[in-house]
Design brief:
mainly alpha; Tetracycline Repressor, domain 2; about 0% strand; globular; TetR family transcriptional regulator; Homeodomain-like_sf; HTH_TetR
Length: about 210
């Protein structure tokens, strides 16, 4: 998810780098000037942190753009760890994914700009699979725990599908005007992934028993 909003910081070498402030400052700058035309010097000016310090902490601008994925992964992990093995896995996953998006109003405020940036910039789209790998790994591990007989590839495919569905819901939310809570939009989207065939449909497609002579 996108970083929380934060006020610009004074330039200097902080003892502990405030990554939330860096990400928020970078997002504001990219929204105003564009991503590809923004230099490290521009980012230093916007964040109040020297280019040298930024380059020491971040290997690329894309790494800054995806800083919010780390906290989202932590929220996902906490939600999954707190669930019981007796709970319905689909409900647990849906709730955990929604928690990872967060109902924080500050995230709702910056999410539209972040989503437009991520979905529009080829460089960021190309690195999304790397940025979301920890999030997907966390969910795949939970699915493997609940479905011990499932192949590893299936668990990872399911986790990837949940990530793709959540992101699609967020992009649709942003493009339609960003009304309401983005986490609620994700919850609504993920409910379509809980497939429950009607009883009548299951009966109609059931294999008829062998008829005795």
């Amino acid at each position: 998810m996108p970083p929380n909003d934060a006020s610009p910081r004074r330039r200097g070498r902080p003892s502990v780098l405030d990554t939330r402030a860096v990400a928020a400052g970078a997002l504001r700058l990219w929204s105003e000037r564009g991503y590809t035309t923004t230099s490290w010097s521009d980012l230093a000016e916007a964040t109040g942190i020297s280019s040298r310090t930024l380059l020491r902490h971040f290997s690329s601008r894309a790494e800054i753009a995806y800083l919010g994925v780390g906290p989202a992964t932590s929220r996902l992990c906490e939600a999954l760890d707190s669930a019981s093995d007796h709970d319905d896995p689909s409900a647990v996953i849906r709730s955990a994914v929604v928690d990872s998006v967060s109902h924080d109003p500050r995230i709702n405020r910056v999410a539209p700009d972040w989503l437009r940036l991520i979905s529009a910039e080829p460089e960021l789209a190309a690195t999304a699979h790397l940025a979301y790998r920890p999030w997907i790994d966390t969910l795949a591990d939970y699915i493997a725990h609940r479905l011990p007989d499932a192949p590893t590839a299936i668990c990872r495919a399911l986790a990837t599908a949940y990530q793709a569905a959540a992101f699609a819901a967020l992009v649709e939310w942003a493009r339609s005007g960003a009304h309401g809570d983005c986490a609620d939009t994700v919850d609504e989207m993920l409910r379509w992934m809980d497939i429950h065939a009607p009883v009548a449909a299951r009966r109609d497609h059931a294999v008829p028993p062998t008829q005795q002579p």
